[in-house]
């Protein structure tokens, strides 16, 4: 499966003048259920910090992660 890449550059630099991504994101999500988002504001260091943070979180015990669950918000 090819994962669609959504480049946010035109939406954050004001070139397009359009800030609503619904017309772009929804069709791709309906087709594949997944997106790869490219954001020019994020550096490689930002990516590394985010991945490190996520790895640390998922290394935590299940009991800790259950405390983070929000069933009243559909687990979002």
Please give a quick description of this structure:
By secondary structure, the chain is mainly alpha-helical.
What features would you describe in this structure?
The chain is mostly helical and 76 residues long. The protein folds into two domains: 1-41, no CATH class; 42-76. Helix content is 49%, strand content 8%. The chain has four helices and two strands; from the N terminus they run E-H-H-E-H-H. The protein has helices spanning 9-12, 22-32, 44-59, 62-67, and strands spanning 5-7, 36-38. Strands 1-2 form a two-stranded parallel ribbon. The radius of gyration is 16 Å and the shape is extended. The model has no long low-confidence stretch (mean pLDDT 85).
Sheet with the most strands, sense and barrel status: 2 strands, parallel
- Name the average pLDDT: 85
Q: How are strands sequenced across the largest beta sheet?
A: 1-2
**How many domains make up the coordinates?**
2
- Estimated radius of gyration: 16 Å
Which segments are poorly predicted (pLDDT under 50) over 5 or more consecutive residues? Answer: none
Q: What structural class results from the helix and strand content? A: mainly alpha
Give the % helix: 40-55%
Order of helices and strands: EHHEHH
The shape is extended
Separate helix tally: 4
């Amino acid at each position: 499966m090819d994962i669609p890449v959504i480049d946010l550059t035109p939406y954050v630099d004001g070139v397009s003048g359009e800030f609503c991504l619904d017309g772009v994101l929804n069709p791709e999500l309906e087709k594949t259920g997944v997106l790869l988002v490219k954001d020019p504001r994020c550096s490689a260091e930002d990516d590394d910090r985010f991945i490190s943070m996520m790895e640390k979180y998922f290394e935590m015990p299940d009991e800790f992660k259950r405390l983070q669950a929000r069933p009243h918000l559909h687990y979002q």
